[in-house]
Amino acid sequence: MQKLYHISLSSTEDELLFRSESDLVRGFNYLAAAILEMEARLLADGILTTHLHCLALTDSPKELITRTRYSLARFFNAKYARKGMWGERNPFILEVDGFHHTIAALNYVNRQALHHGLSATPYGYRHCSANALFRKQLGKEHGLLLPSDQRYRYLPSRVSLPERYRMDDSGLLLREDILETAHVESLYGTPRNFLYQMNKIGDEKGQQDQREEKSSSPIITLELMEKGVPENDISTLLRNQSGKHNPNRILDLELCSLIDTTFVPQLSKSKEHPSIYQIPYVRRVDLFNHLRQNLWQDQKKFATEDQLKRCLGLGYKQS
Q1: Strands laid side by side in the 41-47 sheet
Q2: Would you give the distance in Å from CA 235 to the centre of its chain?
Q3: Helix (H, G, I), strand (E, B) or coil at 189
Q4: How many CB atoms lie within 10 A of CB 249?
Q5: What CATH fold (topology level) applies to the domain 3-240?
Q6: Which one of 55-69, 197-211, 240-254 scores highest in mean pLDDT?
Q7: Where are the domains positioned within the chain?
Q8: In the structure, how many helices (H) and strands (E) does the chain have?
């Protein structure tokens, strides 16, 4: 019997799951492929450079995330000339039971970008399910769509999707085609309530509603949902709820782009397909020290040491 689970997969220490926009596109597409193959039902997702969250109805959450990780590992390792396990060995899996627990879990997954300071609202980040809900009522429209005969380029090998699953011109499957959109919208009830849930600061009432609910699930909190996630500073995540993210902070994708386009071609062993993982570990450490001293001067933005380490893949050493 299918039950509702929150599933989170994080990167290992000092490494990333995704280095570029196109990687994040693959992240959702490969998750969607696993959802469809297993006849599971996806209610929400949030995919960031260091971790991914999803809320899914399935009878085997471990198999769902294992399939997703396997196909993404093959893609990532091939693209970046990398070997070995991709992501943490033991993902975080939590059964979610009860209406108020479900709403709390939906809110946390949909608000991932807000909590991590990637955007001032949940809607300012492309790689989450917040923009897939109440699209007509909120006046959202799609851009160009990719012809169906081109979709295979952005999917795992041997995966064939029905025509009804559309893809935009960047190769990203449309979330509203994959998600249980009607069901999730019925849980929120109205567009106004959805907007309220996405923009409220604090959730004392929601936690009290959960306590009063007969449920086997623990109280859904930000601390619980972010368990094991890199840079899990709860005070910072809570402060980001106000939407006052720091514009001087360089984001992981920006930093990876700088590294991969400026430094990697000079230091990589391969001139045809240069990769950070082809640079000897000691050279990556040298580059870390250089960027730590000079990044602010060069880019007018700052990066934390943890951010530099993971964007340089210092958690990975070639065998």
Answers
A1: 41-47, 51-58, 3-10, 92-95
A2: 21
A3: coil
A4: 15
A5: Alpha-Beta Plaits (3.30.70)
A6: 55-69
A7: 3-240, 252-311
A8: 14, 4
> Considering the entire predicted model, what is its pTM?
0.93
Q: Report whether 198 contacts 111 (CB < 8 A).
A: yes
Please tell me the total number of residues recorded for the chain in this structure: 319
The alpha-helical segments, DSSP class H, found in the chain are: 21-37, 61-79, 99-110, 112-115, 175-178, 181-188, 191-199, 204-212, 222-225, 234-240, 252-258, 264-267, 281-299, 305-311
Which residues, 6 or more positions from 178, have their beta carbon under 8 angstroms from its beta carbon? 32, 35, 36, 42, 165
SS3 call for 137? coil
Please tell me what DSSP assigns to residue 9.
E
**Which DSSP symbol is given to 99?**
H
Ramachandran angles phi, psi of 295, nearest 5°: -60, -45
DSSP 264: H
C-alpha torsion angle, residues 305, 252, 50, 120 (rounded to 10) = 110
- Between CA 37 and CA 30 the distance in angstroms is 10
In angstroms, what CA-CA distances link 262 with 224, 236, 274, 291?
Answer: 38, 31, 11, 12
Integer Cα distance of 43 and 60 in angstroms: 15
Q: Nearest-CA neighbor of 170 among 24, 49, 51, 33?
A: 24
User: What token pair was written down for 287?
Assistant: 């580059």
Quote the longest CA-to-CA distance of the chain: 61
pLDDT in tens, 54-104: 999 999 999 999 999 999 999 999 999 999 999 999 999 999 999 999 999
